[in-house]
Write a structure and sequence with these properties.
The complex is a heterodimer of chains A (about 110) and B (about 110). By secondary structure, chain A is mostly beta strands. Helices cover about 0% and strands about 60% of the residues of chain A. Chain B is built from no helices and eleven strands. The chains are: A mainly beta (about 110), B mainly beta (about 110).
C-alpha cells in the first residue's frame, strides 16, 4: 500500500513569515498532489507535482522522487493561507488509480 | 460554471436506514472518487471510478457501494449505515482517467445515530 506522512502537524506563523511543509511518501507512489482545505472546509488543488519544482504566486512545491519527499513552500504568508494542507500520493499501476492522503499540516497565520 | 455538486449537504439518519449521497460533475471528467474525512485521519479514499461502468475499491470500502452508469454521476450508497460511518464525505472528479487534478465537491456531513 501507499504511505504518506506529513510534518509538522501544526504550524503557527506571523503574517509575512515563510514556511516549509514536508511530505514523505513510500516507494509505491507514482505521483503527488498538494491540496489546501480552507477554514470553511473547501478543498482546493494546489499542485500536481510528481517531480521537479512548480510555482504559483507565493506558493511553490518541489518533489524529489528519488528521495521520496515533497516540500511545499509558502512565502510572505497571509491570514488567507490558514487552513489544512494535505499532500496525496497516487498509485498508478495497471488498472489501479488509488489516492492516499497524509494527515495534513494545520496552518494558522496570525496578523 | 464548472463544478462538482453533492446532495444532501447535511444528513442526520438512524442506524440501518439506507441512504444515497449523490455526486454530479459537469466537466465531462472521467475519473471520480469518494473520500471520507475524519479528525486526525485526513481523507481516506472509499471508492473510485476511472470511467463509466469501471469502479474499484479504495482504502476503506467496507459498508459502501457505488455505481457509475453515466459519466457525470457517481452516487455513494450506504445500504445499512452504522454510527462509525458518521463522517464528512467528499466527492471529487478529474479530467482524465487518473486523479491528476482533482476538483472537489463541497462535502456532505453525515451523522448516523
Amino acid at each position: 500500500g501507499i504511505q504518506v506522512e506529513q510534518s509538522p502537524p501544526d504550524l503557527i506563523l506571523q503574517e509575512g513569515a515563510n514556511s516549509t511543509l514536508r511530505c514523505n511518501f513510500s516507494d509505491s507512489v507514482n505521483n503527488l498532489q498538494w491540496f489546501h482545505q480552507n477554514p470553511w472546509g473547501q478543498l482546493i488543488n494546489l499542485f500536481y507535482i510528481p517531480s521537479g519544482t512548480k510555482q504559483n504566486g507565493r506558493l511553490s512545491a518541489t518533489t524529489v522522487a528519488t528521495e521520496r519527499y515533497s516540500l511545499l513552500y509558502i512565502s510572505s504568508s497571509q491570514t488567507t493561507d490558514s487552513g489544512v494542507y494535505f499532500c496525496a500520493g497516487i498509485l498508478n499501476s495497471g488498472g489501479y488509480q488509488k489516492v492516499t492522503f497524509g494527515t495534513g499540516t494545520k496552518l494558522q497565520v496570525i496578523p | 460554471e464548472a463544478q462538482v455538486t453533492q446532495n444532501p449537504r447535511y444528513l442526520i439518519t438512524v442506524t440501518g436506514k439506507k441512504l444515497t449521497v449523490t455526486c454530479s460533475q459537469n466537466m465531462n471528467h472521467e475519473y471520480m472518487s469518494w473520500y471520507r474525512q475524519d479528525p486526525g485521519l485526513g481523507l481516506r479514499q472509499i471508492y473510485y471510478s476511472m470511467n463509466v461502468e469501471v469502479t474499484d475499491k479504495g482504502d476503506v470500502p467496507e459498508g459502501y457501494k457505488v455505481s457509475r452508469k453515466e459519466k457525470r454521476n457517481f452516487p455513494l450508497i450506504l445500504e445499512s449505515p452504522s454510527p462509525n460511518q458518521t463522517s464528512l464525505y467528499f466527492c471529487a472528479s478529474s479530467l482524465e482517467g487518473t486523479p491528476v487534478t482533482q476538483y472537489f465537491g463541497p462535502g456532505t456531513r453525515l451523522t448516523v445515530l
